[in-house]
Amino acid sequence: MKIDYQNRGFSYYPTKYNVRCSYKNGEWGKLRISTSKNVTLHIAACVLHYAQEAFEGLKAFRGKDGKARIFRIDENAKRLQRSCEGIRMPKVPVDLFNNAVIKAVKLNEKDIPPYESGASLYIRPVIFGSTPMIGVRPADEYELIVFVSAVGPYFKGGFTTASPFMLSRKFDRAAPCGTGSIKIGANYAMGLAAGQEAHERGLSQAFYLDAKEKTYIEECGAANFFAIKGNTYITPNSSSVLPSITNASLAEIAEKCLGMKVEKRRILLDELAEFDEAGACGTAAVISPISEIVDIDTDKHYVFSKDAKPGAKCKNLYEYLRGIQYGEIEDKFGWNTII
Ligand code: PLP
Ligand code: COI
């Protein structure tokens, strides 16, 4: 059966295999291959009550040359280590992470969407504390699971359609128990209310200001924010924003390949009115151009695209990034792991 990748959204599509590894008695065990889609958890498992869980998101791409490439795997491994440290889980060694991810991709190789289908293989490593407990403390035992799903764009229309985002001071980016700078499930649960309100208002995603002063720009619900002003790529510098690997890659491309200036700094809300283009960026979002940011508290609209089309600089950045990921442009930074 031919798969209609063109109309695929960003959802879970099952594949046959996932890869697992257990942490017990102070050490990680061997990688196991599983065809089960389930986990069995104790009713008192730490993750169910105290959300001791972290995850990652990265992608594999089928190139023009037929080869599969995983983008910046080491950066995801390092970020997972920071997330683990942040909520006191044992760090997953970089080699173990890389081996588990590569194994999951190889086992499901037939599910990597074809070149030019517009789709890619999303890789989701997740780690959680499984020890039964009632007192609040770190678990003793953990499970690492890596599964994959062949996905399409995160936002409807992908790169070609700019979408409107919602700004409201009612919502904060960071979870009360931690910070937005680590990739833990609890942060995403804290964003569900804002995301739902945005959708109810016909807007694509929530856009956050800093939690303390509500003056500076932070990021979007599931992606970083960047803007273009003239020939400058501008992105917020904030300790409560998730350090996006895509954003760092785009900044590097902007500076070293496209002759742009890069500014990573605090950005005042009022500056939105001065930007020529704006976008959300991330593994799932890639670059999703923002048509406007609607401040629902003041009814102010910051418009970046009147016709819902991406701007020229966003297009250059998008094409360069995709070019590297699909093996069309020389990977001079050594970002790809070829499978
Ligand atoms: N910010 C948030 C909150 C995210 O969920 C993501 C997705 O991973 C990003 C930013 C983008 O990060 P990356 O480019 O590493 O995927
Ligand atoms: C990603 O881009 O990998 C994300 O984690 C975003 C979202 C799907 C949670």
How does this model look, in words?
The protein has 339 residues and is α+β, with helices and mostly antiparallel strands. The mean pLDDT is 96. The two termini are 25 Å apart. Strands 1, 2, 3, 4, 5, 6, 7, 8 and 18 form a nine-stranded antiparallel β-sheet that branches. Strands 9, 10, 11, 12, 13, 14, 15, 16 and 17 form a nine-stranded mixed β-sheet that branches. It has two domains: 5-151, D-amino Acid Aminotransferase, Chain A, domain 1, CATH 3.30.470.10; 158-325, D-amino Acid Aminotransferase, subunit A, domain 2 (D-amino Acid Aminotransferase, Chain A, domain 2). Strand 12 and strand 13 form a beta hairpin. Helix 2 (73-86) packs across helix 3 and helix 6 crosses helix 7 (312-325). The chain has helices at residues 46-50, 73-86, 94-107, 185-189, 192-200, 245-256, 312-325, and strands spanning 18-24, 27-28, 32-34, 53-55, 58-62, 68-71, 120-129, 142-151, 163-167, 205-209, 217-220, 224-229, 232-236, 261-265, 277-282, 286-295, 300-303, 336-338. 22% of the residues lie in helices and 29% in strands. Bound molecules: pyridoxal-5'-phosphate and 2-OXO-4-methylpentanoic acid. Pyridoxal-5'-phosphate binds next to helix 6.
Sequence-ordered SSE layout with sheet pairings:
Elements: E1 18-24, E2 27-28, E3 32-34, H1 46-50, E4 53-55, E5 58-62, E6 68-71, H2 73-86, H3 94-107, E7 120-129, E8 142-151, E9 163-167, H4 185-189, H5 192-200, E10 205-209, E11 217-220, E12 224-229, E13 232-236, H6 245-256, E14 261-265, E15 277-282, E16 286-295, E17 300-303, H7 312-325, E18 336-338
Parallel strand pairs: 9-10, 9-16, 13-14
Antiparallel strand pairs: 1-2, 1-3, 1-8, 4-7, 5-6, 5-7, 6-18, 7-8, 10-11, 12-13, 12-15, 15-16, 16-17
Helix pairs in contact: 2-3, 6-7
The structure holds pyridoxal-5'-phosphate and 2-OXO-4-methylpentanoic acid.
